[in-house]
Each structure stands twice: as structure tokens, then as C-alpha cells.
Design goal:
alpha/beta, binds pyridoxal-5'-phosphate, eight-stranded parallel beta sheet, about 240 residues
Length: about 240
């Protein structure tokens, strides 16, 4: 085993992780929430294996990747014991089975067709696949996700597919700095989840929202999972 300080990511995390924890704690306190109700998913995408090892050594057990290939490579290296792998990026239908084989939670189910494909995979393999439905709360065309206007009915149908366990919703904030716009996008996701529960949809309570620049606003609006890359590992190289 190598000395920790030889891994530049371990050195960096020793500085950045306490800061992220502090930001989470303050945001939770301001929102009168328990910080224990907000899961930190460390996004290691585009960072080398050293980042994954440093994260695990630092006690981070939930790791996020946005490409199936990179997720598979990292899982092959460090395995699944003691780690929960989160697939957070856009998933093509033809890679659905591969993603389901290595991810513990797929955050990015953005169409009913993808949900049906995952359901078929689950039934064939006699497993349950845990997912979040991604909603395009900002309406930006570059972002994937269900349109908010159709999300309640679509997610309700997804949640009734065999083999699929819909644990909640996920969204990406718009690329703006305006806090009221960000807050409105996150509030919208929370309201959609509330509408699903009122409609009796068998959907869980997770709200995956909040990244490096907007985690405080997301926690204020009820986030239960924040996905943090840059604040932990620095700028991505690619
Ligand atoms: C890259 C990525 C993140 C992490 O973003 P940062 O701003 O670096 O914290 C979160 N969610 C998704 C879906 C991503 O692709």
C-alpha cells in the first residue's frame, strides 16, 4: 500500500472534504434539516483511479460516474464491496444492461423507453434495478429529462414497471447564477415528487439535486443527494 501523501487526490481531499462537509452542515442548519438526510455522492468522472482510492480512504462510499465505460473500468479496479456506484450521466438504451450490471443507482432515467428497457433487463435477470427519473426542470434544450408537464404521469407509469424501483427524482440545474432561478428549478422537482406521492405512485423520497455551485440552494429546497465533483477533486481535465 502506498503512503497517502503520494496520491495527490488524498492531499487535495484532506483540504476540500471538510469544506464541503461544512457547506452541507451550514445549508442544512439554515433549512432546519438534519445534514444526515443529505447524501454526498462524490463525482469521480474524468478523474483517475487515484481519485477513487482517495475518496474511499477518506470515507466517501458513494461515488458517481457519468459514462458507462468509465464506470465499468473503475468498478473492475475497486469492485463493489463497501462502495455504492451511482450512474449520473445520460444513458443510451443500448447500454442499459451494462449500466444496470455495475451501478447501484441509476440517476438518469430520462425517457419512458429507457425505463422500459431497464425493466426488461431486470425481469430477464430476476433482479430489481434502482433508478431515479430525471426531469428537465429548466427546460433547456441541451439537457435531457422528462418535461415537467408530463413528468408526473410518466414517472407514475415507470414506477409500475416490473423490476424497476423508482426511488425518486433527479435534475440538473440550469446554467445560470441567479439564485431565484436555481431555487425555482429545485422547488419544482420537489413539488413533482409531492404530486407523485399524492397520486399514490409507488415512488421513493429521494431528490438528487445540487452540484458544486448550487448545493446550498438544493439543500434548502429539500435535496437528499448532492452530486459533487469540482469542489472535491478540482477541475476536470477533459
Ligand atoms: C459532472 C456532474 C456533476 C458534478 O458537477 P460539479 O459541478 O463538478 O460538482 C453532477 N451531476 C452530474 C449529472 C454531472 O454530470
Amino acid at each position: 500500500m502506498r503512503v497517502l501523501s503520494e496520491n495527490p487526490y488524498a492531499v487535495r481531499l484532506a483540504e476540500t472534504l471538510p469544506r464541503v462537509h461544512e457547506r452541507m452542515a451550514r445549508a442544512a442548519e439554515a433549512a432546519h434539516r438534519s445534514v444526515d438526510d443529505v447524501l454526498l455522492v462524490a463525482v469521480t468522472k474524468s478523474h483517475p483511479l487515484d481519485a477513487v482510492r482517495a475518496a474511499l480512504d477518506a470515507g466517501l462510499t458513494h461515488l458517481g460516474e457519468n459514462r458507462v465505460e468509465e464506470l465499468e473500468e473503475k468498478v473492475a479496479q475497486v469492485g463493489r464491496e463497501g462502495v455504492q456506484w451511482h450512474m449520473i450521466g445520460h444513458l443510451q438504451r443500448r447500454k442499459a444492461a451494462r449500466a444496470a450490471a455495475v451501478a447501484d443507482l441509476i440517476h438518469s432515467v430520462d425517457t419512458e423507453r429507457l425505463a422500459r428497457r431497464l425493466s426488461r433487463v431486470a425481469v430477464e435477470r430476476a433482479v430489481e434495478i434502482a433508478v431515479l427519473a430525471q426531469v428537465n426542470t429548466s427546460g433547456e434544450e441541451t439537457k435531457s429529462g422528462l418535461a415537467p408537464g408530463e413528468a408526473v404521469e410518466a414517472v407514475h407509469r415507470m414506477a409500475e414497471l416490473p423490476g424497476l424501483r423508482v426511488e425518486g427524482l433527479m435534475t440538473m440545474a440550469p446554467f445560470v447564477r441567479d439564485e431565484s432561478v436555481l431555487g425555482a428549478a429545485f422547488a419544482r422537482l420537489r413539488e413533482l415528487l409531492e404530486a407523485l406521492h399524492r397520486a399514490g405512485a409507488p415512488v421513493g423520497r429521494e431528490l438528487s439535486m445540487g452540484m458544486t455551485n448550487d448545493l446550498e440552494i438544493a439543500i434548502r429546497e429539500g435535496s437528499t443527494m448532492i452530486r459533487i465533483g469540482t469542489a472535491l477533486f478540482g477541475e476536470r481535465v477533459q
